Amino acid sequence: MCVIINIPFFCGTAKSIRKLKLSESKVFSITIIVIVLVQLLLAFQGLDVCDDGFVLSGYQQIFNAPESVEYNFVYWLSTILGGFWYLLFPNGGVLWFKILAIIVNTGTFVLAYKLLKDYMKPQHALIGLAMVLFVNDYGFLVFYHNQLTAFFSVWIAFLLHRGILRQNLTLLFLSGLLVGVNVFTRLPNLSLSVLILAIPLMVFLKKERLVEAFKPSLFFVLGIVIGIGVILLIMILLGQFEIFSDAINTLFNLGKTRGSGHSIIDLVYVFIYNYKKVLLFSSAFLLMSIIFLLISEYLKNRRKIIYVLAIVIFAVFFLFFRSGGIYAVYAISFFGLILLQFNAVKKEAKLLAFIAFLVMVCLPLGSGGGIHSSGYMCIWLAVPLAIGYLFKLKTIGLSFGFENFDISKQFSKETLHKVISVMILAFFCVKAYHVSKEAYFDPGSRLEKTYLVNNNYTKLVYTTKERADIINELLINLDDYVMPNDYLLTFDNIPLVHFLTNTKPYMYNPWVMVYDENSFVEKLTKAEAQREQLPIVVQQKFNTVASFSDPIPNYLNSEEPTGRHYNKVRSKAMMDFLERNDYEIVWSNPYFNILKASKPKP
Length: 602
Known about the structure:
The chain is an alpha+beta fold. Helices cover 59% and strands 8% of the residues. The strands form 4 sheets. A 5-stranded mixed sheet has the order 8-7-9-11-10, with helices on both faces. It has a two-stranded antiparallel sheet with strand order 1-2. It has a two-stranded antiparallel ribbon with strand order 3-4.
């Protein structure tokens, strides 16, 4: 147990720091170097053809042919920033967008640390932030909207917290301004306007009149309005406002379709499901902690047995994090924030915990996957605060009362810290294990990811032999039919093909699967009417979401029942389009068809 306690970056005891004679600034600098190097090492492996392909195509075309990536305008701010990065490094490809992601992630880490270090031991803040950074099982994606959202949410919290404490209206205005700007990173980010509640909370904690919250709240709201107005003005000046409006209309149309993942009913279902899972893992965490504390306290003087117990605790927490994923982390965060809110002495700490709580609860709202898909971007403050508070506990009491029977027990600081340290070590071991076994939507051991796709945009990004062979064969043959800036229609989960061929999406969206059936038909019909030429079509005949499947003989059969990754209305509309325009297969293998219209568009 002592070995675990003396690992400075996993348990963070002040004693360990003093032993190494490292100052706070040196520990921080070393930590930053380590996390950057780990992210960079992981960046050289993993090639996703779905999510990464969607955003990369948007960056590539946002200034070249913005109407062709209309749906990417739902995430306009991240797409425009990615577009500028593409202009700076046009030949950087996938790897350079992973480097941009590292810059944003590290910026979020540094900013959060600056906010948190005054309210906990710096080493505990670093531990919590490292947990957030590595909370995903698959390592890291290329730069995209969730990373930018996380950065903005921490920046907003930083300015808001400082503004409230210093009664600085300028900081409150700027925090509101960033809320308004951040709406265009991802529309549900408007939920961060709920942070206005932090202003009257501080008035309440200071026992002042509620009317004192009016003026600072007004400046915060004014900032939001001006932030939104500034971005809309920039869109108008760039001539992109109409495209943005069309993208919003498409999104709202998706929201009307049950089963699209964006309807009100779907979002409510996701919210309920998410918090059922959080409640389940919260109960499990509380029960496990009580049992481990009781046993550890009882056996704390039996050194041989305590080592066995440490292994058992480690194994249980390993399974807890492996099965619970983000829900397990949310459970611990809720537990720590609630304790902090009710037990913290400093008003400033209560305020920060409240802000972290609002971000964690409200920011996932509006996401099709809720906490499961976007929860990791919402916990940059919550996890470190929870970990810091748990380490700060000196004692904790446990009391049960029944008729004629009472149990009362106090746990020592030493016992508490040992259990917490083992829990944290188990978390990092789970993440290291999972990251070693997969990259995002590119499963398989990283030891097997030693093959390259032969394309200028995939230099130094390694994947498995199977994935590289499948993509290479398609690209080699597709070169005979498309040139850069041609329109291409990829059906239906292969948007990366657009980026690798520098082609424009025919249906206003590089990833047509995200359309519900009605929007798919509408966009296909619109493109057919507006585009002067018919596109080359690439059809996949296997599943590419999460992993590459074997070829599926009936993948293109419009009579197959609708499922998670298949919609028979979309498939029928696609087949009807090919039939009425006399398309014929010009190349085929078990995984793809390349089709070309046999005659020009009339």
